Amino acid sequence: MIPIACMLPDTEQAARQRALQRELGSAVDQRVELEDGWALRFPPGPEWIRRLAELIVFERACCPFLTLELEAEPGQGPVWLRLRGPEGTKAFLRRSFDWCDPF
What we know:
The chain is α+β, with helices and mostly antiparallel strands.
């Protein structure tokens, strides 16, 4: 079983969380609580698909317990990022990222 923990050292983890909140937090226009994580909706457009794909690459290395899903809705609709995982994932994400809290 993969532990529910960030693999970055504490100082790097804190810096990464601040960067994510600054870069992505303001762009999240809807948050949906899932049974096993969160779904975050971002504006449509190729720039968001690229940025979120880069995030997925990074998060796979530092948080290997996460299941990360990227969905682009048809007709140039919004882009969704789902962060899911085993029991404890939702609480970990809530503690780590302010943007996980519902509106």
